[in-house]
Structures are given as C-alpha cells and as structure tokens.
Queue: 4 jobs
Job 1
Amino acid sequence: MRLSCDVLVAGGGVAGIAAALRAAREGARTILAEMNSFPGGTAINCMHRYICGLYSSGHVEPDGTLNGGIADEICTELKKLVPGTKPVKMGKVHLFPFATGNLIKTLRLLSEKQARLDLLYETKVVSVKVQNGRIRNVFARSNTGEIEISTQAVIDCSGEGAVIRLSGASSHISPPEERQLAGFCFKITGIEEPGDMAPVSVPYYISQAVIEKKVPDYLKYTKFYQGDTESEGYCLISIPPGDSPERIREAKKYAAAVHGILADSIDSFRNSSITEMSSGIAEREGLRMKGEYMLTEEDVLSGRKFHDGVVKSAWPIELWDREKGPTYRYLEPGAWYQIPLRCLKSPDIKNLYCAGRCISASPEALGSTRVMGTCISLGEQAGLAAAKEMIVP
Ligand SMILES: Cc1cc2nc3c(=O)[nH]c(=O)nc-3n(C[C@H](O)[C@H](O)[C@H](O)COP(=O)(O)OP(=O)(O)OC[C@H]3O[C@@H](n4cnc5c(N)ncnc54)[C@H](O)[C@@H]3O)c2cc1C
C-alpha cells in the first residue's frame, strides 16, 4: 500500500496523539502510525494513575496548567468522565488523577474526530529513506502488509527514538549500566477493608523481604497506589532496564513474589489476586535525539528561559538510581523552566522532529521532562513546528 501525507507521526503515546492532533489542526494531512492497537503507550502499558508535570511547583493548589492547549483538553475530557476530578497533592507536587480506560477513551475521542488525521494502529515503522538530508519515505509493517508513506516531515514520538535511529540522525543514550531502573506494574483485586495504610505497609513488608534476602534489592522501591475502587490497587515494581522476553518473564516472576509476600503479611491482601500485568517493561530512559540543543540539569534547576522556549515544566528531576532508588530535586516554589524548540529538532535531518521521551535532554534533565503532562505539550509543539515547516516553505 502507498500513502502520502504532510506530517507522519511515529508512535501514539500521549506525545504522539498531541503531535498528530496539532499538526492536523494546523492544516497538515497527518498520519499517525502506532504499533499497539490502542493509544496512550507507556501510560497505558504501565497502568499509570496520575498525569505528572502539568502544574508549577509548590504547595499552593494550582489554578491552571502551565502550558494549556491539548494538555487542558485532555484534562477537560477526563473530568467529563469523572466529574469533580481535581489535582491531588503528593509531597511538594500536584498531579491529575485518571483511570487507564478513561485515558484511552479520551485520546480516541479527540483523535478519531479530528479532520485530516488518519490513525494507523498495529502499524510499526520499520525503515526510512533519507535523501539529501531529508526523510522522503517511511516504511511500516501492519497486519495487512507493508505500507510506504511519502511525507514532508516526520515526528518521532516512539519513546525509544525509532525514527532517529533508523534515519541515522545524531542520537545519544547512556550506557546500559548507567540507565535508570525501569518499571513493571500489576493490578491487584479482592483487597478487603484496606484502610489508608497500604501505600506505607506495602513498601515496608517488601523491604523486610529484601533484608531477609527473599527478593532482589531493587524490589524495596515498590510503590502501591489505590485503584478505582477500595478493593483494587496497583503495585509498581522497579527492575533493571531491558525489554527482552527473559526480562519480562523475570518481571512477572517478581510481581508474583511481591504479591505473595503481601498476601502472607497483610490481612487485607490475604484473598486478593493479580488480575492484570504490564505488557512490557516500562523504560525511563531510551535512545534520544542529539538535537540542535541539549537540555541540561542546570537549565532545569535554575528555571532557565530560552528565546525559543516552547514548553514550560516544573517537575523535579526524578531519578531512579539502581543503588540509591528514587531521588527528587525540586525547583524553587513557583518556579518553572522552558524547553526550547531546538531540543525537538534534528541538526542533521532537516524534516525530523521529536517529542515526548526522546527529546534532546541529558539523562538528568530527562528525569524532569519525561512525565506525561510535559510529553503532551512537547508533542503539541512538535506538531505545530512540523506543520508550519510544511505549509510555509
Ligand atoms: C515506571 C514508570 C512510571 C511512570 N509513572 C508516571 C506517572 O505516574 N505519571 C506520569 O505522568 N508519567 C509517568 N512516567 C513517565 C511516562 O510514562 C512516559 O515518559 C510518557 O508517558 C511518555 O510518553 P511518550 O508519548 O513520549 O512515549 P510512550 O508512551 O512510550 O509512547 C511511545 C509509543 O510509540 C510506539 N512505538 C514505539 N516504536 C514504534 C514504531 N517503530 N512504530 C510505531 N509505533 C512505535 C509505542 O508502542 C508507544 O505506544 C512513568 C514512566 C515509567 C517508566
């Protein structure tokens, strides 16, 4: 099959959906290719419960999002599904709660009714043709066969830098031993009279099992989140990065071990069971573009502004070190920094943009930029930039 478009978006996580929406709204004929059968990417695979990165830092309840736009639209649609949803405060930050199914519904609702946007699910981008420093064609594989797409611009929203890698654009990634801990989530149902203590007692009992050497050290960073009803909850376990089949088998084995410890140690978990698991390992750090500019730790913590700043963020630098576990370095209360458009543009492939997890950022800066709220706004800005380039040559 041969298709043609103005903007091709690779990957339909939150960044990809926002990029495709914005490009299409700017008048570009847009195609989004996503290898899963649903939108939302890591947020869905890893059963996230909160959108992080939407608000400025500090203790005061936020009166609006930092970037507005599609991030606001998504929150508005989520609120229609659960009226009364408000940002919740956790430590020094505010988060927007959501249920996984509602995020899929919302992303579908916004994208399926969008004019000039074609959504190709179960379609994986597998190669690209570069000519004179521009991507001319993108090749994808779907259930029905090969697809060749000619395009004016490409936005890599694959999370793992698939198009950046395939096109030979400059990229960077930390060596395997330096990458942060990855995550794997599972849902528990049948919890009886849980009370409010599970987020504290779950890590406590898993840490005890680590001390007794029953499970590996990194499981002591296990987190527990309340589900949509009192009787369900979500456990997020930490594991070393790598998405091989053996690593997924290992993650499932440790999920079962963690649940076994909880069922043995906490009365309310005794008759519970695991009813859902992540479909893969959720990586915090993957291959990223080496863009026209690389955002640094100093930029984030000093609240730096840029002449081409397009996205605001105030999320702390959140790193999941293998030895130290999670650490958070916060901006000053009320402060925020900007991400410049140059972090979304390839210096060597003229019509290649990126958004979401694969923008040009140091590992530390990525610890702040990679959360969903920021990824949505990055997608929106990449969509705008890619469409502008095409319409006004
Ligand atoms: C363990 C863990 C917990 C987290 N918790 C939170 C949280 O609670 N709140 C929060 O806001 N953020 C959280 N994050 C961060 C957040 O999940 C992601 O960084 C964010 O969702 C990334 O969005 P994205 O669109 O850039 O990428 P992704 O969501 O990874 O989407 C990329 C999409 O591209 C598709 N794709 C990949 N390759 C191809 C290809 N070749 N062709 C076609 N499609 C392709 C994938 O299937 C995927 O759907 C967490 C991250 C991790 C790892």
Job 2
Amino acid sequence: MKLYMVSLGPGDYDLITLKALKALKNADAICVPTKSEDNSFKRSMTYKIVKALMDEHGFDKPIIPMYTPMRFKVEDWQNQVNILQESFKQYDTLSFVTLGDSAVYSTVYYLLDLIEVQNPELYKNSEVIPGVTSFSDASAKIKKPLCVGDSSFSIVPLHKKNVPNTTVYMRPKIGMSTEDIPQSGELCTFENLNYQGETISSYRKEHVEKYMTLFIDFVKAQ
Ligand SMILES: C[S@@+](CC[C@H](N)C(=O)[O-])C[C@H]1O[C@@H](n2cnc3c(N)ncnc32)[C@H](O)[C@@H]1O
C-alpha cells in the first residue's frame, strides 16, 4: 500500500518534476479532484494536466474521480479519504494529484490529517511530492525575483484577515545563535536537504552549523 500526494506544478505540463512524473507512472491508478458533482472532468484543470502528461509520456492509468466541492467542510475531505481507502481494496499504489505545490493551500494536508488518525499504516506509507508553485512560475514569467539581496516576501491570503503565519527563515550565518528567531508554532530545523548529512529536526537547533540550513516556524491553521 503506497499513497503518493503528487504536486503537478502550475499548469505548464513541462513544469512537473521528474519525481512527480515517476509517481504517476508507478501508480496503479490516479485520483483526480473534480468540482463536478456528476464526477465528470469538464471543469477540471487537474484532469487536463494528467491527461496531457499521460499522452506525452506514453502511459495510461485508470482515473478515480474525487468530488471536491471547495466548501472547506470536513465531510467533503472525509468523503475523499473514503474514496482513497475504498480504492486501496482494488489497487496497491495510488497517486492523488494537486495543482501547484502541495505545501501551499492544498487539499493534501486536510486529507493527510484525517488519514493520520484513521489509518496510521496508510499515513506511514504516504509520501508528499513537492512541486513548482504558481507564484514561482509568475516570477519566472516576468523575470522578477520574489526576494533577492536584503529583501523577503510574504504570502498573504485575501479571503480572510489576521490569520496565523508560518515563516521560513533562510540565509543564516554559520555559528550564529538561533535564540532570537521568533517562534509562534513548531520551529523546525532543516540542514543539507538532499545532500550528505541531511538532518531534519523538529526543534530549533541552538547554533547554525551549516550554511545550507533553513528554519520553518510552522503554525497551525485556525
Ligand atoms: C488553493 S490555492 C493553490 C495554490 C497552489 N497549490 C500553488 O502552489 O500555487 C489557489 C490560488 O493559487 C493561485 N493560483 C494557482 N494557480 C494559478 C495560476 N495558474 N495562475 C494564477 N494564480 C494561480 C490563485 O491565487 C488561486 O486562488
């Protein structure tokens, strides 16, 4: 039993990662969100992308529709989790797809939060595959950086004010103390990601040992 949560990127099929493409190719079936109650894909961007990828890269997988009404209700996420669990009776490996990057306003974590409680074994066998965000793509299209030199950038939702804020801290100096980094949630330390000596700590390391270190203060959504 393996569940891939696959980020498809911002809609340009070539901006999918190789890892995401491999997860789609390795899946026995692909779970695709649709806003249509009749489970059709007439309005589904995600379906278009998956179809185009299958055509271009020469593979064909059964598609499982996941009705996603965008009402932000637990019952809707539960319904999707039920479809996943039901599908595992027939398939061993499933890929669930999401637009852009799964880390940014994606259904992926609503589903994983439920799966973690209801099926810990499946949670353990799940893997999230990151992707290119819409705003990375926007920046690249007009050749303007999101942050460079002494600047930073924020993601601010427009649908609601005064929401909790997760912050990424980058570009530390080797040897610096981390005690001044503000913390509202869980401050995690990531060192040498994907390089030799990769370390992920679910706490604040006291001192910075490597240049390739970033900290994320993860706050819980309301
Ligand atoms: C639910 S969020 C999903 C974000 C996505 N996971 C990402 O990584 O970009 C949807 C919002 O992302 C932005 N967005 C996503 N795709 C976009 C696109 N192709 N063009 C412009 N904005 C986009 C819009 O602000 C939209 O309201």
Job 3
Amino acid sequence: MTNSDISAVFDHVADLLEYQGGNVFRVRAYRNAARTISVMVESLASVRSDSYRKLTDIDGIGVDLAGKIETLLDTGRLPLLDDLEAKIPAVVFKLMRVPGLGPKKVKALVDELQVDSLDALEQACREGRVRDVKGFGEKTQAAILENIGFAKSPEHDRLLWEEADAIVQQLLAWMRECPAVRQAEGAGSWRRGRETVGDIDILVDSDKATAVMDHLQAWKECGDLLLRGDTKTSVRGPRGVQIDLRVVEQDSFGSAWQYFTGSKDHNVRLRSRARDRQLTINEYGVFRLVPGADADSKPVKGAAVAGRTEQDVYRAVGLPWIPPEIREGGDEIGLADRDELPTLVTIEDIRGDLHMHTTATDGEATLGEMVRAAIERGLSYIAITDHGQRVTMAHGLDAKRLQQQWGEIDRLNDSLAEEGRSPIVVLKGIEVDILEKGGLDLPDAVLEQADWVVASLHYGQNQPRERITKRIVEAIENPCVSVIGHPTGRLINRRPAYEVDMEAVIEAAAKAGTFLEINANPWRLDLNVPHAAAAKKAGVKLVISTDAHSTRGFDVLRCGVLQARRAGLEKEDIANTRSLDQLKKLIKRGNL
Ligand SMILES: [Zn+2]
Ligand SMILES: [Zn+2]
C-alpha cells in the first residue's frame, strides 16, 4: 500500500467514526494522520524498514496508529475499517459530503427514507419527503437541495494544492534521478498555486523522450497508462490524479514551461501582444512573423527569437518575467508593461503567527510544545488563541481558565527572557466566538487584557445574509477585536461560505482598523483571492495565520502565503511581516 492509499483509509475511518458519533479527538487523530501521510514525501514502507527509525517518529503517529499502518502495509486491510464498513452503509460517506448534513441528519435520512445515493436524496427533496423527517423541515430540505450540487460537482473532487504539491515533489525527485533528464519542472495550476489542482503537468528537458517516458512508467506510484505518444505520456498517479508528462528540447524548455503553466487567459493575452510586435508565440518558442509568399497571404513563421528560458520569452514581447501566481489573465500584463508588478510577499517575510490552539482547547500540543516548535521555525512572536467558552465541543475557555493560561504565558515569557536574549515573545490571545445573537462569548473587560483577539464565527452559519453581516461588522467595530478569523467560513470541497456581504465587512474593517485573516489551512484559504485583493484595495491589513492545532500545523503557512501572492499582496499589506514593535503600533488598540 502506498502512502496515499493509507491516507485514504484513515480519512475514511475518520468519516465513519464521526458518523458513529465517536470521540472528537479520536476522529481528529485519524483525520490528521491522513493529512500528514498524504503530504509525506518518503514512503511509510521505507520508514518502517529503516532500522534506525520508527513509525512513531512521525509527528502525530502514536503507537496505536503505527500498529495500524503496519497492519495495512502487511495485509492491505484494516480490521477496524472492515468493522465500520460492515455496520455503516456506504452511502453515508457520500451524504456527509453535502454541506450542512452532519452525521445525525445523515443517519435519519438513511434510516427513515432509505436514501442510498445522492440522486435518491435529491429526488426525496423534490418530492417533499425530506421535510417530513423528524428534525428536518421545509428550510432544511431547501438547503439540502441547494447544496447537493456542491457534493455532486466534480469540481469539488479536485486535490487540494497541498496534496497535489506532495505528489509533484515526489514525482520531480523521481524524474530528476533519470540520467536522460536535464531539467524537470511542474507546470499548470499547481505552479500557479491554485487552491485546488485537477491534473498534474510535468515538463522535462531531454533529447531522449523514450527513456524519460519509460522512467515515468517505472515510478512506484504510477498507475494506468492513459496515453503514450512520441513526446507526451499521460498516466494515473496517486489518488487517481492524471499526470501529463511532456518532453521538450532544451531550446524550447522556457516557452513550453510558460505555455503549460498557463493560465489560458494569460496566454491568450500574451499571444495577442506578440502579434502586435510581428511575433508569434507557442510552446516551441517565440518566432518572428515574416510576410507571406504574395501580398494577400498571411504572414508565416520565421526564425525563433526566444524559447530557452521563461525570462527570454517574456523579454521577447517587451515584458519582465511575471510570477506564475498572478498569471490569471487579470491586469498582470498591463502592470508588467508599466513596470508596476507587485513585489509579492514571500514566506521569509513572515515574522510571527497569530492564530493557534493548544491542549487547553482542541489542539494536540501543549503550550510549551507549540512555543518550542515556533522557535524551531524561526518565528519571533506567536499568539496563543484557544477557543472561547462558546465552543463547548472543544472545551472552550471561560474567563477563569483563560486567566490561568495567561499566567502560564507570563511565566513562560519570563523564563525565556531569563535565558538571555529571548528567541520569541508569546502573546496572550484568544479566539472569541461571534455569538448567534451577536456579541462575543467573553466580556470586553476580559478581552481588554489580551494582547491579541481573533474573533470568528463558528455557529449560526445558516442565518440570513444581513444577520451574519451584522454580527461580523459589530465584532469588527469592537475596540478589543484585532482580527476577524476565517471571515467567510468556507471549507474547500466541503462547505461553501456562509452568506455574508464581504463588501460591507471590508468597508467596516477599513474604517475600524481591524485586520482580516487569510487562514492558511489548505481546507480554508479564507479569505479567498478576490476578497483578499479587495481588502488590500480598501486599505485593510491582512494577517496570514496557520490556525495550527498541532506543531506540524505550522507547516501550512506556505499555503497562506501562496494565497496572498495570488491576490497580488506585498509584504507591506501583511501585518505579521512586521517586527513585534511595528505590529503593536499597527494594532488599533495599541495597548499591547
Ligand atoms: Zn476558528
Ligand atoms: Zn482557530
């Protein structure tokens, strides 16, 4: 079994345990293990066979999960999953993908209406049978009908960028081992850093296409062959994703890389710019157009003027190189033409992380473990922001427990300072809940003592647009609130954003000086790109936060940075690129 097979098994177990109403922490342990494994570059089999290491060395893999991995590697099956599958109908898995349908509702639908597919559910809604089930009603039925398309859409089956990235990195490492390969690079939507990736495009520079394509087929993760031509091969890769490999000559590598990176809209505009300059541009290079044989015929392709590098290709049409993340056919060519391309924020620019959880609520690591991990990652400040009391499921903090945690943070900062030059400052924070009826779940008198307050909306997500907008705008206007966490609540592939007037939210944030978050969790990436760009335009500062629930949770920072880059954001636009002193000046309360 490959890592992705094992990851899929654990994900499935998590779904089924969740359906059974299993322990939240147990569900999360499987879910997190699935994610860790899906983005691991090394195979679990090789970790296991290495006599110097153990599976339990992997972050988040305890003795129990390590045993299950060994069983899977040995037998290809997991008795726990077989048990669960014997008890739970297969359709449950699909129904739980409908936004708004939790385990309890799914169980009711299966028990009462014998719903056995998404189509059957849709039909039951249309026939008005769902509203009569206990706990449902007209409104819920309408919501299911509206959301069922989301679960059925193949668009929501695409890999998250982070998952695609794990595959691309392994594949490139493998391809670069082939002696016939001069260069190997990824292209397409992966390279543009899109939230999700459909197919994976790989480009190789080589004179020996046959050897290169054979090498791809020899990859241990390579599935079915879909197509094989002279210079192009398509295969199924891990998790069923289609991988397209193209082999090109050295002189065309840059133009092919540019061409297959896309986007289509960007390339259309680039081609038209080339034509204005009597040039033509394609995956083989940039060519001069020369007059046809007679006066009436179209111009024909003449000598190549560029193709070896992407820089050459852009230079040939009078442009500087454009970062892939903004090649979406917006105004990037105009900006490049006027020499006004943004200097996009980089991961090295980020100095602190201002949203994370510990074992005090639903995190997996203690305060001390989170701080050590943050120091290892070179962060110079972090804010501990466990949940407020409303999030009972996560054992949210009331004022008393919060004060205790802050006392602990004070002592920790003191002891770090005693060790000499303190490597990190830990801020006393909280993720307060924006309540269903409005207001926050902790009193201002408590929040005033915090260094940093994230306000987020976790409940009442089905309320009408005006209600939700009002709740968020009020939180923005509260002088204690530093930032709004995951402002639209969407989960990519799983749940659309709640109804909210983002224009009003951005306007209120600009006026109050409250920051908006770009939550870097690959399922969230919230704000999305258009909203983040609009926030910048309105003068709102953004904060890129990991919302880490474990020490490896810090690793998603790069996903948030990519999102910010795609929105055209610069270092200046992101509050946590500042030093702590500068950040304090930027926070609206300034009482840090
Ligand atoms: Zn949250
Ligand atoms: Zn959080």
Job 4
Amino acid sequence: MSWQVELRGVSKVFDERVVLRDIWATVTAPGAWTILGPNGSGKSTLLRILAGLLAPTGGEVVYLHNGARLTAHQRRQAVGLVAPDIALYRPLTALENLRFFTRARGLSLSDGELLGWLERVGLRARAHDPVASFSTGMVQRLKVLTALVHRPPVLLLDEPGSNLDEAGMEFIRETVREQAGDGIVIVATNDTRELGYGEPLVQLGG
Ligand SMILES: Nc1ncnc2c1ncn2[C@@H]1O[C@H](COP(=O)(O)OP(=O)(O)OP(=O)(O)O)[C@@H](O)[C@H]1O
Ligand SMILES: [Mg+2]
C-alpha cells in the first residue's frame, strides 16, 4: 500500500502575476512535510492545486497508489483538506455537519462513531448546537474533523493551528503524528509553532 504525490513542474499565474514557478517535488508515504513561505507567497494556492480544487497554469500533480495513477474521482476520495476558506454550514449542528461531509464522501459512519470523533476534539457536549453558536477555535476543530473522518491517505492542512489554543494545537500535533505514521500529511504554514511538523518540502517566496 504505497501512496505517492508528485508535483511535476507546477506553475500558477494569476492575471500575469507569477505565484508559483516550476515546482518539482515528490512525497512518498509515510511521512509529514511542510510548505513554507511568508504571506502571499503561494502556500494556499499550492495546497489547492494539490487538492485538485485549482488547476495549475503549467505542469501537473500526479497521485500514485502502488504505482498506478489515480483518476480525478479517486483523488478526491484520497484527499482531506483543511483550509481557512472552507466553510461549514452554520445553521446545522456539529453532528449534522459531520454527517453531511461524510455522506458527501460516500461514507456512512454511525452517529456513535461521529460523536467519538467530536469527543476527541472536546466538542462532544456541543454536538447538537448549531455551528453559528461556536467560537472561532471550535469551528477550526470541527473543520479539521470534516477532513479527517474519512481517514484519507493524503491530508493537506493549511495553517491548521490558526485560532487554536494549546489543547487545540496538541490535537493537531497528534493528528499530524498519526497521519504521518502510515499516510502523507502536508502542512502549509508560516507559524513558528508549526514549522517542526515535517520536513521542508517547498520554500516559497524568498
Ligand atoms: N483567485 C485568485 N485570483 C487572483 N490572485 C490570487 C488568487 N488566489 C491567490 N491569489 C494571489 O496569489 C498570491 C498567493 O496567495 P496565497 O493565498 O496562495 O498565499 P499564502 O502563501 O497562502 O498567503 P498567507 O500566508 O497570507 O495565507 C497572492 O498574491 C494572492 O493575491
Ligand atoms: Mg494561505
């Protein structure tokens, strides 16, 4: 069971502004890597391209499983992404949001299992409250869960520690450690608390 992700000469140009230029990199499971760079250097853009949400201007991203190239559909199943611009459904409860995201992935987890995940991030007692009533850090914990519950082999985290307190950061550290044990995790960050999550993969803007 080997997973590999390859960036093959990836570039991205927005309105004539070159954000990413000819990036080559390969990651093979298991392990953790970081994408580093200051604000506006292209970290989120690169993660979106890795997740298949944005097409590169040049080059390509290739996902391989046991040497076989994944289709776009298989790739969506294989990836979990946590990013600041991913929105939860605010009128729905935490549990309803988890149900929605798992079903969207074609999975059916029991409420018992989903409540177990909520327990892990300290949200069990708030499972039936609407997300609109959550604090920023609580929303961030729930966002991480929506990317995790389907146990994707490739986990992409865009500044996962934003708005998290020490307990929240510990959950992220644990998540990265677990994921790096058998899968791939790539963390985009310029937060000094997150630099040690993995081996530097790409250094942008400098
Ligand atoms: N959809 C878009 N249209 C035009 N320009 C964009 C778009 N998305 C990103 N950019 C530009 O690409 C550059 C990189 O943005 P990106 O969000 O990837 O940076 P970042 O490294 O994640 O920054 P931060 O640390 O602030 O999160 C910026 O100049 C940004 O304005
Ligand atoms: Mg960003």
